[in-house]
Amino acid sequence: MGDAMMPPPVAPRSASRAQKASARGLASLKARTSPGRAKPAPGPRSASPKRSIVKRAEEANAAQLRKRLDELAAAKPPRDRQTLCHELLLAGFVNSYAELFYLTHAGDDGSASRPAPASRPSTLDELEFVKESLSQSEVAHRQGSSDGMYVAYRKVANHYASKDDMTTAICFYEKCLEIASLMGNDAHAGESNHYLGVMFEKLGELAAAIQFHERHLEICRRAEDAEGIQLAGHHLTEMFRRQAEQHQEEGDLNAAVESFSRCLDAAVAAEDPRAEGFANHKLGLAFNELGDPMTSLQYLQNFLQICKDLKDRQAEGEAEAALGRSFHSLGDNHEAIRRFKAFLDIATESDSKDGQERACAELGAIYSEIGDYEKASEYFERTYHLTRSQGRLGELDVARIRLGKARGDLHLVPFLGTVRNDLHRLVQWKCNRTPFVNEEQ
């Protein structure tokens, strides 16, 4: 029974059948791995926007990488502000590295410990120029060439001045001044003071500008440099003029007189007769306004003489007008009238209606003051017509009032004579409107 339960024995495969199966499997494997085997064509797939963006980014990165590799292959490393700073550092120019790093990176971290330059080097050529100039200054320093350092720093300062970056230019001009002072080179010191004065002028800092221009003038006088004296004097004239006008706007006449006096000295140093005349004119007006007409006469007479030397008739008329006001303040009405008539003649000669109007108004006021109402009326009437012809309606009412008052004063004298000498006839006129003629008329 045990034998009946046993499975029948499996017949062994023949060797030929095993070899055939192995051959068929090897052929199938070769067919699947054969490179010439045709693959089924892929079906249409929609492009993913995300994959497109990633692909473009990869292509851009690859292009940048190829560019870098090409530059390295050509022994030309990429140029940017970081590379230039590193080149200075690797070359041993530590000070130049620090200065260039500040110029190109100041303000990147938002730090306010040092003000950022108004204009950074923006192009590769500009970066190279600043880098080379700074490295030249350090080379000159190592060689003990103060003149070379001065020239290199001046190049950088002039560059920033040309870009209207006054703050950065001042920084390098101050380095120039420091080097010039250590050298004892008056020519370089005078030049540096001049440039610093000009930079502060542009910034509107008049006090600082005056300080540097005065140092420049002092150095030039010591060196007997006539051209430098004129240059410094010219700038000082302009600075003192602006300073004086600021004081006038603030109502500080004494400070204005001081600034105009220094302006006059600078104009003399600059050998500028027009500026000298301007300062004399302003001083004369200021002293007259301060109630010192006697002192004003000296400056105004100088102004008049300068105008005559320059043959400037219009300015000569202004000088005569100012002198007329000073003489009037001193109570010399005769001389005041003479001066205002000279002003009127010049204004008429140049067909200046404004000048004629002003002269006639001044003459009318003086004649009215001394009781010559007929001439006062004459000049006030001319003032009225001149004002009206210029369309100055705001001043026309004033001219009309002055003319009316002068004519009223003119008729007041005979009326008072009638009251004094012929009261009977005056009463008859009042009661019966009997006409009468004053014998004094």
From TrEMBL:
Residues 1-52 are annotated as: Disordered. Residues 12-24 have a biased composition (Low complexity). The keyword Repeat applies. SMART domains: TPR. TPR repeats lie at residues 357-390. GO terms for biological process: cilium movement. It comes from the Eukaryota. This is Tetratricopeptide repeat protein 29. The lineage of its organism: Eukaryota, Sar, Rhizaria, Endomyxa, Phytomyxea.
